[in-house]
Amino acid sequence: FKKTLRKNLCSIYFIAFNIANFAYICASLIPLIIDSGYDIDPSRFNLILCRSRLDAIVLFNCLSAFYLILASIDQILVTSRNARTRQRSTQRLVYTCIIGGTLFWSLFHIHALICSTPQQISPNTYLCYYQPGFHVAFVCSYALIKEPSSLLLMVICGLWAKKNIRSTTRRVGVAVDVSVTKTDGASTENSAASKDRQMVLMLL
User: Are 182 and 173 in contact (CB under 8 A)?
Assistant: First the structure.
């Protein structure tokens, strides 16, 4: 069963999600721990490190949610009752979405490489953050829109995929009642639905 899940195209999105999460931890939490424990943070005084770290934090934070949304959409395609819709979930589409989406969000967040700088917030205390003014207002507005919309999209896609699985399960049950000769086919469909259900539960 685990081998089957690894072959599922949705697992590629999970791999990308885990890589983005790991990169986010390396860019945000590890420097924070080192700074708190040893008072070492080169990004406070180095402009290049400051901008690179801030860009990595906002980028990988966005990509984590983005990959989960893609995985949720993929499960909608896979669990659809329409055969043509299911066929749209291909390995080529998965890699295209991941690469294309990563490039798009990298370009979108390039402003962090331009409009951020170490700022003194108190004597002997510096913080790498966006330049005050319009840019801070833009980033705050973007965050207020991104966080709830990402959560809402994942919930909607997850419930949609769950609904597709339930309808497929009912259809398999009807097929079993109508004809005993279709038991093997129904069993295969039921097994596929079970695997899809497992993926949906992982997303939820």
Answer: no
Pair 120, 45: CB distance under 8 Å: no
Summarize pLDDT for 37-83 with one digit per residue, the tens: 777 777 777 888 888 889 999 999 999 999 999 998 998 888 888 88
CA distance 53 to 60: 11
Which H or E element spans position 117?
strand 116-122
- What is the number of other CB atoms lying within 10 angstroms of the CB of residue 102? 16
- Domain 2-203 adopts which CATH fold? Rhopdopsin 7-helix transmembrane proteins (1.20.1070)
| CB-CB neighbours of 13 under 10 Å | 25
Extents of the domains making up the chain: 2-203
Helix (H) or strand (E) holding 128: strand 125-130
Please tell me the distance from the alpha carbon of residue 13 to that of residue 17, in angstroms, as a whole number: 6
